[in-house]
């Protein structure tokens, strides 16, 4: 089985983007695509769930509000009874005081007691409503809230459902928007993963490096095009005894391929080829990359450019770039004869992986 380094680039972008927006429940690209396809159904399911929630709330309030009203009435009656008992006790105490006692001291004391009992009777009578309000206020407040809520959801049921489901629908829409922003990367990851699965069928003499990305400081001058290469990115680099294969994956529709707004993958892969050619030869010349030599002179490491189309393959041909359908990939790669040793393959692959981890080439 082919040795594989790194996750495919599009998948890395997808994961990073989702985590940056606090979305972590999706475990695969398939789940993301299923979410997009099922979005309308998910919306309807949320609304249906909240309709059931409001219906259940209506049923509960239908039972709770009368029970709560009954409890308030019973509590009020209990408090009124307590008031009546206390008033009768105070009146009995008032009637028991002898204001005509023969002892002047006792008469004076009874007059004082009478005044205190009268004040207490006045307080009980006039503060009773405050006492009831203080005791019943939590129950009355709860009843009023539930009564208003009951009237609202029974007269404006759909509005109640909309209010209840608003947050869930808003969060669902946010996730949809975040996922739609990386739609190209999602479908790019599908194509890249298909390439990886296909290349994994090769023997362990092959080494695959996914998502090779590198910046150059200073930039590399390309005389033929009179431009500078500041950075390169290629979906896959396959190192084999037949040389190096640069593989760019495109999971494009026919419409996308015809769009003039998309960057040319042909130019992209040629830039990467030139930069990689310069990089490897520089490291071989400086002995930083040691491969087997030949007494005739310097050896050439073939670097071939492949663009693999997952959906639609153009009929056009391009100089120095081979366009392939996915099912043609393995036959094309294994067609070439070996030109470097297995040891050289491992040496070159290790060097490229080391450079890839560095991200910047100075």
Structural write-up:
- This protein is of the alpha/beta class.
- It has two domains: 3-26 and 184-361, no CATH class; 40-171.
- It contains ten helices and seven strands.
- Strands 1, 2, 3, 4, 5, 6 and 7 form a seven-stranded mixed β-sheet that branches.
- A hairpin with a 2-residue loop joins strand 3 (227-240) and strand 4.
- It starts with a strand and ends with a strand.
- The relative contact order is 0.12.
- The mean pLDDT is 87.
| Main beta-sheet annotation | 7 strands, mixed
**Rg, nearest Å:** 42 Å
Helix/strand-derived class? alpha/beta
Low-confidence stretches: none
- Taken from the alpha-carbon principal axes, the silhouette is rod-shaped
Element-by-element helix/strand order: EHHHHHHEEEHHEEHHE
Q: Average pLDDT value?
A: 87
What is the domain tally? 2
- The count of DSSP E runs of length 2 or more, i.e. the number of strands, is 7
Taking the alpha carbons of the first and last residues, their distance comes to 34 Å
The helical percent reads 55-70%
Strand content: 5-15%
Q: List the total number of helices.
A: 10
């Amino acid at each position: 089985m082919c040795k594989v380094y790194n996750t495919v680039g599009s998948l890395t972008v997808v994961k990073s983007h989702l985590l940056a927006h606090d979305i972590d429940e999706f475990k695969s690209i398939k789940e993301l695509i299923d979410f997009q396809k099922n979005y309308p159904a998910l919306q309807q399911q949320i609304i249906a769930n909240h309709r059931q929630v409001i219906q259940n709330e209506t049923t509960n309030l239908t039972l709770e509000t009368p029970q709560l009203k009954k409890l308030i009435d019973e509590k009020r009656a209990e408090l009124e009874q307590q008031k009546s008992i206390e008033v009768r006790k105070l009146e009995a105490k008032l009637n028991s005081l002898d204001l005509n006692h023969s002892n002047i001291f006792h008469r004076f004391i009874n007059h004082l007691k009478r005044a205190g009992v009268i004040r207490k009777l006045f307080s009980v009578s006039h503060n009773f409503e405050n006492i009831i309000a203080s005791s019943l206020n939590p129950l009355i407040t709860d009843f009023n809230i539930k009564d208003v809520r009951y009237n609202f959801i029974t007269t404006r049921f759909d509005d109640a459902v909309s209010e209840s489901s608003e947050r869930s629908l808003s969060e669902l829409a946010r996730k949809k928007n975040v996922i739609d922003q990386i739609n190209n990367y999602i479908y790019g990851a599908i194509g890249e993963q298909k390439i990886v699965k296909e290349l994994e069928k090769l023997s362990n003499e092959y080494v695959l490096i996914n998502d090779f990305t590198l910046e150059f400081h200073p930039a590399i001058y390309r005389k033929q095009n009179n431009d500078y290469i500041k950075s390169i990115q290629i979906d896959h680099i396959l190192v084999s005894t037949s040389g190096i294969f640069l593989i760019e994956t495109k999971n494009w529709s026919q419409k996308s391929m015809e769009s003039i707004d998309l960057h040319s993958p042909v130019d992209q892969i040629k830039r990467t080829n030139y930069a990689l050619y310069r990089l490897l030869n520089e490291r071989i010349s400086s002995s930083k990359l040691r491969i087997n030599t030949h007494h005739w002179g310097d050896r050439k490491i073939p670097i071939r450019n492949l663009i693999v189309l997952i959906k639609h393959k153009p009929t056009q041909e391009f100089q120095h770039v081979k366009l392939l359908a996915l099912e043609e990939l393995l036959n094309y790669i294994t067609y070439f004869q070996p030109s470097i040793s297995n040891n050289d393959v491992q040496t070159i692959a290790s060097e490229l992986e080391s450079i890839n981890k560095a991200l910047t080439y100075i």
